[in-house]
Amino acid sequence: MIDYIIRRLLAIIPVLIAISIISFIVIQLPPGDYMTAVKGQMQSLGGLTEDEAEKVAQELRKIYGLDKPLVVQYLLWIKGIITKGSFGFSFQYRKDVGQVIWVRLGLTMLIALSCHFVSTAVGLLIGIYCATRQYSLGDNFATLLAFAGLSIPSFFFALVIMYTLTVGFGVEAGGLFSQYYVLAPWSWAKFVDFLKHFWVPVLIVGFAGTARNMRVMRGNLLDVLNSQYVLTARSKGLKERIVIYKHAVVNALHPIIMYQGMVLPFMIQGEIAASIVLNLPTGGPMFYDALVAQDMYLAGSFLMLLSVVLVIGNLAADILLAWVDPRIRYK
Question: Helix or strand or coil: residue 96?
């Protein structure tokens, strides 16, 4: 087991290198750069001519190294990450990318992990209930909700929830704090206010994940319940509860565990859409604004961090699967 973990950790290194290259290239694909937008602003707001604005833009490109070849820019970016822990300079925020990302990444991961935990736990419980009561009223109702959860986009669901809470119940739905507590120092009252707002993005983002986990668990458990060893366990007179939870559910969890390695980036993706609608101080609006403004280092660093989360999640899922299923042997 330890040898397998070491081999997987070594295999991650070239994957991370490839991810960094692809992330940097993808951000560079749109025509122009941030200085192109600055040039337009200088012409429209500063009253400069096109030649004067272009001259200033070229000087700024030299200062920030944007006039260098793409390969050189990538190597300088990677060198800064390895040697200094710096992800580059954010042109839009006028500060180091790390200072911009780490503040928002914590809330982003908190929402995504909370959605991941809730959607997995609730989805598994509902899936087990539906599989053991196939075609019942509860199974049909949960299946209908699952189809809705997989079909409704997160941004549209966020708009519906905001409208319902605001108009129907008079509750403030946007943001993570009330207006009074936005700039206030942390206290017990602010924490309670945070919890009152926190459940809204968790519900919105976790709805689709709950539906997906429920559908997968229901289908897997129905297949396992028709297996011969389950029939044998029942023929021995074992209680139905023991047959289901000790024999069937354990084997039905394998696809769910393998799926856990890929689900977190989808949660973050849903969080990005929901945070833009709900105006949350997370990485979603920051990433969107960076893409629009072509803030290459900020957008590329955030995209790379999301990819790293996917790689780490897959590694954790493989290790967990090997620990849960003793039949798996890695040689």
Answer: strand
